[in-house]
Automatic annotation (TrEMBL):
<dbReference type="GO" id="GO:0050660">
    <property type="term" value="F:flavin adenine dinucleotide binding"/>
</dbReference>
<feature type="domain" description="Acyl-CoA dehydrogenase C-terminal">
    <location>
        <begin position="234"/>
        <end position="367"/>
    </location>
</feature>
<dbReference type="Pfam" id="PF08028">
    <property type="entry name" value="Acyl-CoA_dh_2"/>
</dbReference>
<dbReference type="Pfam" id="PF02771">
    <property type="entry name" value="Acyl-CoA_dh_N"/>
</dbReference>
<dbReference type="InterPro" id="IPR009100">
    <property type="entry name" value="AcylCoA_DH/oxidase_NM_dom_sf"/>
</dbReference>
<dbReference type="GO" id="GO:0003995">
    <property type="term" value="F:acyl-CoA dehydrogenase activity"/>
</dbReference>
<dbReference type="InterPro" id="IPR050741">
    <property type="entry name" value="Acyl-CoA_dehydrogenase"/>
</dbReference>
<protein>
    <submittedName>
        <fullName>Alkylation response protein AidB-like acyl-CoA dehydrogenase</fullName>
    </submittedName>
</protein>
<dbReference type="GO" id="GO:0033539">
    <property type="term" value="P:fatty acid beta-oxidation using acyl-CoA dehydrogenase"/>
</dbReference>
<dbReference type="InterPro" id="IPR013786">
    <property type="entry name" value="AcylCoA_DH/ox_N"/>
</dbReference>
<dbReference type="InterPro" id="IPR037069">
    <property type="entry name" value="AcylCoA_DH/ox_N_sf"/>
</dbReference>
<dbReference type="InterPro" id="IPR013107">
    <property type="entry name" value="Acyl-CoA_DH_C"/>
</dbReference>
<dbReference type="InterPro" id="IPR046373">
    <property type="entry name" value="Acyl-CoA_Oxase/DH_mid-dom_sf"/>
</dbReference>
<keyword id="KW-0560">Oxidoreductase</keyword>
<feature type="domain" description="Acyl-CoA dehydrogenase/oxidase N-terminal">
    <location>
        <begin position="18"/>
        <end position="90"/>
    </location>
</feature>
<dbReference type="InterPro" id="IPR036250">
    <property type="entry name" value="AcylCo_DH-like_C"/>
</dbReference>
<dbReference type="GO" id="GO:0005737">
    <property type="term" value="C:cytoplasm"/>
</dbReference>
Length: 390
C-alpha cells in the first residue's frame, strides 16, 4: 500500500464518526453537503486517478477500490459520489491535449460529473456545435467543476451516420458546470444523497475543441487510462461491498448493546438463530471481498500488461460486480430483517443501507442481464458448448 492510499484511509477513518452523524442531512439535501465535498477534495479523493504529471496521485486501481469501499461503509451516497467524481478522471484523457490541460490548469482536484446517455443533439454552426438535450443520472452535478454529456451529431436535423454499421454518430463533450441547468428531480428510494439529477442544455454553443470520440485511444499512457470501461464495474462492486459491510457493522452494534426484541426468549446477541444468521452474512461478505480483490488483482495485471481492453475481461468484471451487488443486497435485506421493528424507523441506518443497495443494484453495470454475456462466452458464440464440443 502506498503512502497516498494509507493516508487517505487514515483520513477517512478519522472523519467517519462526524460524517456518519450527518447521514440524515445528506438524504434531506439530496446531495453531499458542500463542506463535505471540500473535505473529500482536500484529502485527495478526487485526484486519485489524475495523472502524476498533472499533480494527481495516479493511484494503483486495487488500492483505490479500498478507498471507495471505506467511503461506502460510512454512507452509500458518499462512496457513490466519490466513485463518480474521481472515476471520471480515467475517461478525460481521450480529450485533445490543449483542452485537457485547460481542465487541470488549476490543479488536480477537479470534480467531473456527467451522464452516459446520448441524450442530446448537436448541430454544426460557426465556431462549434449547438447542443440541446436533457441528460439523466448526472451524479454529483451540483458540486461538479465540469459536466460531461453525449450527443447524436446532426446535420440539418438529420443524424450523421457513424462508421461501421451506419448507426448515428455519437460524440462526447465537456462544458463547465456553471453552463448547465440542473433540474431538481432526484426524488428516489435510495442513494438519495448522490444528487443524480437531470442536467439540460438549450441551444448552447459548444466549441468544437470540447468534443471527443468516446472510442478514441487515450492520449496518456498508463494502466488507468487504457480501458476505463473494464474498470468501472469493479468500482461499483467496491461501493456496494462497503455499504453491505456497514450494514452488518450497524446490526452487530445494535445487538451488542443488549437489545432484546419483543417476545424474544433472549437478548439478540444470545440467540443462536441470530448468531447463525450473522455468521452467514459475514461469510457471504468475506466471500464477496475476496472475489473483488481477486478480480481487481487480475484486472490490474492485465492493465499493467496493456491487455485489459479484451472483451472477455469486461465480461468477467461485469459478472463479478453483478454477483457482488446481488450478494450485498441479500446481506442488507437480512440485516434489516434481523433488526426487527426498530429497523423500520428513518433513524435506523439498516433501512437506509438496504434502500441504497437496492438502488445501486439497478445500475446497468451490475444488472442481472450481465450474466447473459458470461453464459454466452462460456458456451461459445456459435452455441457450441466449449466444455464438451457438442
Amino acid at each position: 500500500m502506498t503512502h497516498t492510499s494509507s493516508q487517505l484511509l487514515a483520513d477517512i477513518e478519522r472523519l467517519a464518526p462526524s460524517i456518519a452523524q450527518r447521514t440524515a442531512e445528506i438524504e434531506a439535501r439530496g446531495q453531499i453537503p458542500p463542506d463535505l465535498i471540500e473535505t473529500l477534495r482536500s484529502i485527495g479523493v478526487f485526484r486519485m486517478f489524475v495523472p502524476r504529471q498533472y499533480g494527481g496521485s495516479e493511484l494503483d486501481f486495487p488500492l483505490a477500490l479500498e478507498i471507495f469501499a471505506a467511503l461506502g461503509k460510512i454512507d452509500g451516497s458518499l462512496g457513490w459520489t466519490a466513485m463518480i467524481g474521481a472515476g471520471a478522471a480515467m475517461i478525460a484523457p481521450v480529450l485533445p491535449e490543449e483542452f485537457y490541460d485547460r481542465i487541470y490548469q488549476g490543479g488536480p482536484d477537479i470534480i467531473i460529473a456527467g451522464s452516459a446517455f446520448a441524450a442530446g443533439t448537436a448541430e454544426p454552426v460557426a465556431g462549434g456545435w449547438r447542443v440541446t438535450g436533457r441528460w439523466p443520472f448526472a451524479s454529483g452535478c451540483q458540486h461538479a467543476d465540469w459536466i460531461l454529456g453525449l450527443c447524436v451529431m446532426n446535420e440539418n436535423g438529420v443524424p450523421v451516420p457513424g462508421p461501421g454499421n451506419g448507426a448515428p454518430m455519437v460524440r462526447g463533450f465537456f462544458l463547465p458546470a456553471r453552463e448547465w441547468h440542473v433540474e431538481d428531480n432526484w426524488h428516489v428510494v435510495g442513494l438519495k444523497g448522490t444528487g443524480s439529477n437531470h442536467v439540460t442544455l438549450d441551444d448552447t454553443l459548444v466549441p468544437a475543441s470540447n468534443f471527443f470520440n468516446p472510442g478514441d485511444k487515450p492520449r496518456l499512457s498508463g494502466p488507468l487510462y487504457g480501458a476505463a470501461q473494464q474498470l468501472i464495474p469493479l468500482m461499483h462492486a467496491a461501493n456496494n461491498l462497503g455499504i453491505a459491510e456497514g450494514s452488518l457493522d450497524d446490526l452487530v452494534a445494535f445487538a451488542t448493546s443488549g437489545h432484546r426484541q419483543q417476545r424474544a426468549a433472549t437478548a439478540m446477541r444470545d440467540s443462536e438463530f441470530f448468531q447463525a444468521e450473522v455468521g452467514r452474512i459475514h461469510a457471504d461478505l468475506r466471500a464477496a471481498r475476496a472475489f473483488l480483490r481477486d478480480q481487481a488483482a487480475s484486472h490490474w495485471r492485465h492493465a499493467l500488461a496493456g491487455t485489459l481492453s479484451e472483451k472477455d475481461l469486461l465480461v468477467e468484471g461485469s459478472q463479478m460486480a453483478t454477483w457482488i451487488a446481488n450478494t450485498c443486497v441479500r446481506a442488507a435485506d437480512a440485516c434489516f430483517a434481523l433488526g426487527g421493528s426498530n429497523a423500520i424507523y428513518e433513524t435506523s441506518p439498516l433501512q437506509r443501507r438496504m434502500r441504497d443497495l437496492h438502488a445501486a443494484a439497478q445500475h446497468a453495470a451490475v444488472q442481472q442481464r450481465n450474466y447473459i454475456s458470461g453464459g454466452t462466452m462460456l458456451l461459445g458464440r456459435d452455441g457450441v458448448d466449449k466444455t464438451t464440443g457438442q
